[in-house]
Design brief:
The chain has helices at 12-30, 33-74, 77-83, 88-98, 109-118, 123-136, 138-148, 152-172, 202-237, 240-245, 252-264, 271-276, 284-293, 299-305, 311-335. It is mainly alpha-helical and 337 residues long. The longest helix has 42 residues, at 33-74.
């Protein structure tokens, strides 16, 4: 007897996949070969820029997470209370000057600040430290002096960064409950035994610190990768010449340099040498705003901020330094001879 069973129809997902494949093939056949050449060149540029940003920033992230691990092991909350005042103004000023001690850039300072918050650092001090450390630390001071000399650019970069960080810290001191601003502190991986005995030896303490360092490096490192990819994509597919072409005028030039600071996402340890190349095209005030704002806010640091703070505080962390850097740059452009 002949089997009259009709064949089963293809699943809808298979039909849609085949239709999409045919449509994609038709579209690609209509695209000029030159487009693929251009796209391949852009992807090569993207890979180069991404690796440059990541490789430049990764060592400083490692340094920051190492400092975080050491703080976790060797600093307790009683010590932190003795070192830093809980009065808002004194805490904000003290936090800003703490940036002169830790050699961390905008990537490494984020995990370190989070750990200091966990150890009882006042909110205003932590915010001031977060914004000031990438500019006031010894490495950046010497790199800026190497590029511009021990003169006005170095002096004003440090001074304005110090003022902005203290003001932002005071703004955040209004919030009395840090839980309204901070996200939950890092929960360490359970793949390792992170319990530190009260009578632990020095070797055991360092081993614990290195475990904390590894956990935080891999946790924060993924956000560094995402931020580096976004920065590389913007640099690759948005011509910088388009920004430079509109960078004229005392205010517009500052705005352009602030946008470049976000897009380029250059580590603060080397950004002075990049800024030096803009001195022939842009005014003193606009280059100064680039050097002040860039270490405080760029793409990768904003993504890392979001792992420490809730969204609204991050908005303030970006908006207030942006407006104050814009004001400072514009004032220099208007009044500097």
């Amino acid at each position: 007897m002949q089997n009259t069973t009709s064949p089963r129809p293809l699943p809808r997902s298979v039909i849609l996949f085949i239709a999409f494949g045919v449509l994609l093939a038709v579209v690609l056949s209509m695209v000029p070969i030159a487009f693929f050449t251009w796209l391949w060149d852009r992807l090569n540029v993207f890979a180069t820029v991404f690796l440059g940003i990541f490789i430049e920033a990764a060592p400083y992230l490692l340094l920051g997470t190492l400092a975080s691990g050491l703080v976790e092991v060797f600093v307790d909350q009683n010590q932190m209370s003795k070192w830093v005042s809980h009065r808002p103004v004194a805490a904000a000023v003290g936090g800003a000057f703490m940036g002169m001690v830790f050699p961390v850039c905008e990537c490494g300072v984020v995990p370190l600040t989070r750990r200091l918050f966990n150890k009882g650092l006042p909110l205003s001090a932590g915010i001031s430290f977060l914004l000031a450390a990438p500019v006031l630390n010894p490495i950046v001071v010497f790199s800026t002096a190497s590029a511009f000399g021990w003169g006005n650019m170095l002096f004003w970069r440090m001074g304005i960064s110090l003022v902005i960080s203290i003001i932002v810290g005071l703004v955040f001191s209004i919030e009395k409950d840090p839980a309204n601003i901070l996200r939950p502190v890092l929960t360490l991986s359970h793949d390792h035994d992170h319990t530190l005995k009260a009578n632990a030896t020095l070797t055991e303490k360092f081993h614990h610190a290195f475990l904390v360092t590894a956990d935080e490096f891999f946790e924060m490192g993924r956000y560094l990768i995402i931020g580096s990819m976004l920065a590389a994509g913007l640099q690759t597919f948005i011509p910088q010449s388009a920004l430079l072409a509109i960078g004229s005028g005392p205010v517009l030039s500052v705005l352009v340099m602030l946008v470049l600071a976000i897009v380029l996402s250059i580590c603060s340890t080397v950004d002075a040498f990049v800024a030096l190349g803009f001195m022939g095209t842009f005014s003193f005030g606009s280059v100064l705003s680039f050097l002040v704002f860039g270490p405080m806010v760029d793409i990768k640091s904003v993504i890392m901020y979001l792992q420490v703070f809730r969204r609204r505080p991050v908005t303030y962390l970006v908006a207030i330094p942006f407006m104050m850097s814009l004001l400072a740059g514009a004032l220099f452009n208007y009044f500097q001879p």
